[in-house]
Design goal:
The protein is α/β, with parallel strands linked by helices and 407 residues long. The protein is built from 16 helices and 14 strands.
Length: 407
């Protein structure tokens, strides 16, 4: 791959999130350090993005359904960064080409049934070739997955014991973009929606016992959590993030020291006292109502024109004023607690997602020899198993808070 003309190609660069990846590379990549290009299906729009950002990079054109054109792009780069969703509709030929040409891949999907298809179809071949295919490198699911990995490894290496559970507590302010909503709508329209409730959907280990499945069910109701002395509610991204974390746990169990015996992971929205119970109940009810509404085609047809459309998203002001905190609590087998924090300023679904994604791609482009498992480790991986401590260090260097310590 050293003879390829590009280190990273940003595919989907004219979309709402894609434009932000171009801006991020323009602002944070040292000229000459990384050979990068932008790509998508519409040359005119790509040229507009190039002019708006003010970068002198190559423009590559390929419709995501055109195998020959996609092959031409993928074969020229060491890493393909993809923001063109819904990924279940537009990502298949891109991933297929990456596996065939041994090109590393990252994206921002949260479409777990599609990721399951990738695991079943490509994991063994990508693993044999050392190709890292890493979906879910945005706000879903880097804080959850990387944070849990860091907590578990701290417990094992610094405290010399094992981890029995990790819980993550989210607080965030931001907005949605149309591409994210389009991916959610496509999932509800597909025949794969029933898979989402499986807590071990992405687990490579096979069938789980009924007891394990029950122990790892998604929270359904608000509750008081004595470990943090406040009220929590189900997190609407939990059905995505928890599956990714459990895949990481299962993969590490195959490769090296497992996360822990009967290890569990769960996550919540956190509400500060003294009135934490009131917003916890309100948010839970509102989320359930909205989720139920968009699953009913007549109601969704009324709502959809009022929501952001693909290509659109929050204002610059909203994105700049947003923020997120992911507080993590690790519980050891001998009763100790370890706390972690991943947080940043900026809308999590856009600003943080772009930082997570771009730094993930740069890990693969610039830090290959330091990645988990060495350069030869491949497969359909997670941010933790594919990038690990390298991503954590790059995020710290990029200004994100990534902290660990004994409670």
């Amino acid at each position: 791959m050293t003879a390829r003309p590009y280190d990273v190609v940003l595919y989907g660069a004219s979309g709402f999130t894609g434009k932000q990846t171009v801006q991020y590379f323009a602002q944070h990549v040292t000229p000459g350090e990384v050979r990068w290009a932008i790509a998508g299906r519409n040359r005119e729009k790509l040229e507009q993005v190039k002019a708006q950002v003010g970068v002198n990079v190559d423009v590559l054109v390929a419709d995501s359904q055109d195998t020959t054109a996609i092959d031409n792009i993928v074969s020229q780069t060491r890493v393909l960064l993809n923001t063109a969703g819904p990924f279940a509709l537009y990502g298949n030929k891109i991933v297929d080409a990456c596996v065939r040409f041994k090109t590393h891949y990252v994206d921002i999907t949260g479409e777990t049934p599609w990721v399951k298809e990738l695991c079943d179809r490509y994991h063994d071949r990508a693993a044999a070739d050392g190709t890292r295919i890493i979906p879910c490198c945005g706000f879903d699911s880097v804080p959850s997955d990387l944070g849990t990995y860091l907590i578990v490894r701290y417990i094992q290496q610094e405290l010399g014991t094992s981890c029995r559970a990790v819980k993550a507590y989210y607080q965030a302010i931001g907005g949605f973009n149309g591409g994210t909503l389009a991916s959610a709508f496509n999932l509800y329209d597909s025949a794969q929606l029933s898979q989402v409730s499986n807590p071990f959907l992405l687990d490579p280990a096979g069938d789980r016992s009924p007891e394990e499945i029950e122990r790892n069910r998604d929270p359904q109701f608000p509750q008081y959590d004595p470990d943090i002395d406040t009220w929590v509610a189900p997190f609407f991204m939990g059905a995505i993030n928890t599956r990714v974390v459990r895949r990481s746990s299962a993969l590490y169990s195959q490769w090296q020291e497992p996360y822990g015996v009967d290890f569990t992971y769960q996550e919540y929205l956190k509400f500060d006292p003294p009135l934490g119970w009131l917003p916890a109940v309100g948010i839970t009810a509102a989320t359930a109502l909205f989720t139920g509404a968009i699953q009913q085609p007549p109601i969704r047809n009324l709502l959809q024109p009022l929501l952001p459309q693909p290509g659109n998203g929050p204002s610059e002001k909203t994105m700049n004023e947003g923020w997120f905190r992911c507080e993590l609590l690790g519980l050891t087998s001998d009763g100790c607690k370890v706390r972690g924090l991943i947080g940043d300023r900026g809308d999590p679904g856009n600003r943080a997602t772009v930082k997570f994604l771009c730094e993930s791609a740069l890990c693969l482009a610039l830090n290959r020899d330091k990645l988990p498992g060495g350069w030869q480790c491949g497969g359909i991986l997670t941010p933790a198993t594919g990038l690990g401590d390298v991503l954590a260090e790059r995020l710290r260097h990029a200004g994100m808070t990534v902290e660990l310590g004994v409670a």
